[in-house]
Amino acid sequence: MAIKLRELTQTPELIAGGHRACAGCLGVNAVRQVLHAVDRPVVTTSATGCLEVTTTIYPYTAWQTPFIHSAFENVAATASGIERALKVLGDEGAIPRKVKTIAFAGDGGTYDIGLQALSGALERGHDFLYVCYNNEAYMNTGIQRSGATPYGASTTTSPAGRRSLGKTQRPKNMTDIVVAHSVPYVAQASPHSWRDLATKVKKAMDKEGPAFINILAPCHRGWRYPMEEGINISKMAVDTCVWPLFEVDEGEWNLSYRPRRKPDVADWLKRQRRFDHLFKNGGGPVLDTIQDTVDEDWAKLLERCGEPPKTD
Amino acid sequence: MRPDTGRVAMTGNEPGALAMKQVRPDVVAGYPITPQTELMQQFAQYVADGESETELILVESEHSAMSAVIGASATGVRAMTATSANGLALMWEMLYIAAGYRLPISTMLVSRSLGGPINIHCDHSDAMGMRDTGWIMLFAETAQEAYDNGIMATRIAEHDQVRLPVMTVQDGFITSHTTQVLSILTDEQVSEFVGIYRPKKSLSNFDQPMTYGAIVLPDFYMDVKRQQAEAMDNSPRFVEQVADEYAELTGRRHEALESYRLDDAQVALVVLGSAAGTAKDAIDIMRERAIAVGLLKVRMFRPFPRVEVAEALSRTRAICVLDRSLAMGAPMGPLAADVAASLVTGRRAPPLYNAVYGLGGRDITIADFEGVIEEAAEVAQTGAPKATVRYVGLRGNEE
Amino acid sequence: MTVERQHAIQPYAPAVQREIHKAGEWHWEDRWRDLPAGGTVPQGGTSENYVTGGWRSDKPIFDAVTCTHCLLCWVFCPDSAIDLDDGKVTGVAYDHCKGCGICAYECPKQDAMVMAPDTQELPQ
């Protein structure tokens, strides 16, 4: 049964208003959407980052769930401790057994500094959901490049300049890295596709063992698009196949969405001023490389998901 | 064949593991590092044999060990870990956070030098690196003390007037890997002594969802830290309370400070950890040679019992504080600096200097201590130390 | 922008302090010694009492007549600021709405949520 938005409205609002995220923040929106898809008590934890600092400015907290932040690189380790403690308490009947731990982190806390702790927790098989809200740079400290920043993007530490066309490396494929841990559930999601996102969260919550959802979270401060367009930007990322939606459920690859027409990546890039320089002198080869990489990755994904090869 | 109770012969790591088992932590996070490894191996064996019901998380780093323990403790269960040297250094960030969140975590440190160059043997540079992190720190001279501290730490940390993490320290290899005879309690005795830890406020209270680790800005941060400092300052009386109860159970009373032949001493040595035993033997010898020397052993290093230290040393004529670590560029080693500061705020400050010894496991012998005492006795006469910091047991002459 | 409005967006506005006072087991005016231990916030959702509406320059205007209650504005709102009653949109929580405009941009019925310059004073 397809999830209806009306059903999601029946769940409590676990991220209260009055948090201090930027207007139009899709990181917080992604977290809100995740928590609306949750049907049981959860303990939440977050890495240091935008999400944590904006939702917990003392004595205010936006969290209506028990919540802990401890540091940047360790959210999966903190979640490991919570998860085992909940098991102890569940076994002795102090709390319901179905309580689940959810860890949130940005791309910095997931792709880079938190990768070791995440890998360890996945390998150990803790029963938890890890959500990466991927805004493709260190936004909390002011838009520095991360391992998730796209090739060619201008950030404050990979700025475009007379001798630079932005970041010179392609982002690492974090979702694949998680898949390589052979955990029960791995998925990519996008906030514009709320039903897909909620469905994936529900699946992830029902697994016993680690689940990982990588959610693209456009950031208008870092990506430099008008703040009202964030949802549309995420939709275009999916339509251009820059951010394909898929899941790896118990090792089985399923494509969640196949765009009828696959627009040029340039259409997506053009709307974000972090790529402005690519449309000026000398950016052409970079644009070509970006398109080629997306096409290759998309073809590979179609094959993995057992889909017919690309037609357009 | 090792009996469960009474007098046993064990290396220091074994009673560490035994204490960890007997206090029945709900969650333990473990990661191997020399010389602590044996402790965690032994504990893992207890779990494997069904002697311990603890959820053992075998993490991928010490940073994650402390992080997992913080997560578990905040969720409202008893959580522990153990480490050494670089492992503690990797935890460093999380040590502050555990203390700042007022989580009653107890941890065992098997002390080892913090290179470079790398060295796996004992000194206190690891422990000294954490001295300002907000943990109560108890040093053990012997395997017996390591065991006793390991049990008392849980009670101290969880005392509702304390709520601070506790680090119990034993000397790597010197204590952890040498066999000593000690008295142990039964599992039931320990279990009854430490009780069950189930706090009302925690992450597992879904009726009142709380937030740990909010960002506290200048409007509240200093107040929160002042409160933490007060908890630390107030803790000694509760440490003492727990020590009293433990003495009732075992007949072994562990004071924050232990004095040895100090009452009439003109010369005082101050040490931490295993070297106290050697010092006591040297003192006996020098007493026979009519040198009035005594020892002050600091068992509770944090909070530093400054009033009691000043009181114990104020009547002497010379004080030599022995540090098993360096504080590079500082006026003196960490223990010496604390003793000096205590004396300055006390009634009288006798001449004091610092002797650095035993770095990276360099042995300190009775003969070394005799030399130290002779020099300190000279200072008692002249009132002037040869140098603020002396080094014991270097290759060749000190100069 | 009036003086009152400036005042309303100060983090420690008296109205907010009173709210916290009511909601919590600790008091804003408490001395350092009486704050909850460890910098914890002993209850959830206290940010409800914090007004971010003052960040806005444009505000969304909701039209109940044209709204089809598709709820897209609700699910896409980063600020949990779309008011609902039994699964139907009833308006915007202006205390928290920061005026990002996602609701209006994504509204399939373009008249149901429209951005307009915010000239009104904030509720205290």
Task: Summarize the model shown.
The complex is a heterotrimer of chains A (312), B (399) and C (124). Chain A has 312 residues and is an alpha/beta fold.
How would you describe what is shown here?
The complex is a heterotrimer of chains A (312), B (399) and C (124). Chain A has 312 residues and is α/β, with parallel strands linked by helices. Chain A is built from 12 helices and 10 strands. In chain A, strand 5 and strand 6 form a beta hairpin. In chain A, 60% of the residues are buried. The model of chain A has no long low-confidence stretch (mean pLDDT 97). In chain B, helix 1 packs across helix 2, helix 1 packs parallel to helix 6 and helix 6 crosses helix 8. In chain B, the strands form 3 sheets. In chain B, strands 3-2-4-5-7-6-13 form a 7-stranded mixed sheet, sandwiched between helices. In chain B, strands 10-12-11-14-15-16 form a 6-stranded mixed sheet, sandwiched between helices. A two-stranded antiparallel sheet of chain B has the order 1-8. Chain B is globular, with a radius of gyration of 21 Å. Chain B folds into 2 domains: 245 residues, 3-Layer(aba) Sandwich (Rossmann fold); 135 residues, Rossmann fold (3-Layer(aba) Sandwich), CATH 3.40.50.920. Helices cover 40% and strands 19% of the residues of chain B. In chain B, 56% of the residues are buried. Chain C has 2 domains: 36 residues, no CATH class; 65 residues, Alpha-Beta Plaits (2-Layer Sandwich). In chain C, 21% of the residues lie in helices and 15% in strands. Chain C is built from 4 helices and 4 strands. Chain C has a two-stranded antiparallel ribbon. Chain C has a two-stranded antiparallel sheet with strand order 2-3. The N terminus of chain C is likely disordered. Chains A and C meet through helix 1, helix 2 and helix 10 of A and helix 3 and helix 4 of C.
List the helices and strands and how they pair.
The complex is a heterotrimer of chains A (312), B (399) and C (124).
Chain A: H1 5-9, H2 26-36, E1 42-46, H3 50-55, E2 67-69, H4 75-91, E3 100-106, H5 107-112, H6 115-124, E4 128-134, E5 160-161, E6 164-165, H7 174-179, E7 185-189, H8 194-206, E8 211-216, H9 220-223, H10 230-239, E9 246-249, E10 252-255, H11 265-269, H12 284-304
Parallel strand pairs in A: 1-2, 1-3, 3-4, 4-8, 7-8
Antiparallel strand pairs in A: 5-6, 7-9, 9-10
Chain B: E1 6-11, H1 13-22, E2 27-30, H2 37-48, E3 55-58, H3 62-74, E4 79-83, H4 85-100, E5 106-111, H5 125-129, E6 136-139, H6 143-158, E7 166-171, E8 179-184, H7 187-194, E9 211-212, H8 221-250, E10 257-260, E11 267-271, H9 275-288, E12 293-298, E13 300-302, H10 306-313, E14 318-323, H11 334-344, E15 352-356, H12 366-382, E16 389-391
Parallel strand pairs in B: 2-3, 2-4, 4-5, 5-7, 6-7, 11-12, 11-14, 14-15, 15-16
Antiparallel strand pairs in B: 1-8, 6-13, 10-12
Helix pairs in contact in B: 1-2, 1-6, 3-4, 6-8, 9-12, 10-11
Chain C: H1 3-8, H2 14-23, E1 58-62, H3 72-76, E2 82-85, E3 88-92, H4 102-106, E4 113-117
Antiparallel strand pairs in C: 1-4, 2-3
